Amino acid sequence: MGQMQSKNKLMFNHVRSGNVEGIRALCLEGANLEWMDKEGNTPLSLACKKSKLYDVAQTLIQLGANVNAHPPAPRDATPLYHAAKRGLEKTVKLLLSNGANYDCQTPLQQARNYKYTKVVRAIENHICVFSGWMREFYGPALLDVLAPQLLSRRVWVVIIPTSSVYPKPYKFELVVYASLKDAQPRVVMALRNQNLKEPEEMHPNTSVTIVDNDSTKKKSLKLAPSVEEGRQQLKWFCDACKGIPQPVRPPVVHQTVLPSAPPLTDYDTEAVEGSPMNYPLNCSTTPSASVGGENTEDGGSSGQCLVCMDAPSDGICVPCGHVAGCMSCLTEIKSKEWGCPVCRASIHQVIKVYRV
């Protein structure tokens, strides 16, 4: 018994020092990966408190450590909680990809409280049933009709479940951010008893109103797609409010003969410092690559970049073939390995497209 306890204590020493090989050896000798110290830490919890111990956390998960282990109290002190509280984006993504729970949204709330924007985006991107740019109306209803662009603002909208174990009926909430640089949301609205006023199918109006019936003072929010002809985005948003996730399309590889492209090293792929660029994930149709011609089916039917919504979409993602944004935005996305803004496929190369 004493020998096993000494092995468990030695495991913590190896974790603190980052000794991956020592951890593997002790695991083979029968050391308990779920043994807790006096503070209620497991070896994995300890590894999730420092960015330099990312490799240790990865090794412990590979060896079978429980990503949802927690002390008797507080029960929310899971490895994900510790990583989110310290802003360890890479560790957060590792835990989420290996089944970490986000019950009660405690890790997400910690990331918001400490203003770790990248961690907030990472958790929300993993759990949301909808995410994208929309326009929020804030003026009188009559003026909304007369001058919608002047009385609306562009906002980032996500719909997330309130628990990783979905209850019945499902519980979701609508979260609105003024920009992607913000860790704290401007609006959080429960959707379990919402009054959703959808536009009629043939009506020219493309906005939706959500009324929060849970609050003492009824709050309402009026949203519209961020791009013209955005009815498909609005439909996905309304479905998500009801607990129906937006569809995720598999990558589509087009056999397109591309013009001779310069080698990958010729492109400036230096990462831009700052908050992560979360691009719209809601496109009306799956685009088809078009080289030297107009692409009328890409996510921005007007030919605008899906990311900055300002510059023309003149970059093609290889190998998926989507003309999804401007060269500047796509180059940054590729450097940060976020994947195509349309289908999320890996981007091996970005090629400039010249439209005629």
Automatic annotation (TrEMBL):
Keyword terms of this UniProt record: ANK repeat, Metal-binding, Repeat, Zinc, Zinc-finger
InterPro entries on file = Ankyrin_rpt (IPR002110), Ankyrin_rpt-contain_sf (IPR036770), Znf_RING (IPR001841), Znf_RING/FYVE/PHD (IPR013083)
**A Gene Ontology molecular function term of the record:** zinc ion binding
Where are the annotated ANK repeats, by residue?
Answer: 39-72, 75-107
Instruction: List residues of the RING-type domain.
Output: 305-344
Q: SUPFAM superfamilies of this UniProt entry?
A: Ankyrin repeat (SSF48403), RING/U-box (SSF57850)
Q: Which protein, by its recorded name, is this?
A: E3 ubiquitin-protein ligase XBAT35
Source taxonomy: Eukaryota, Viridiplantae, Streptophyta, Embryophyta, Tracheophyta
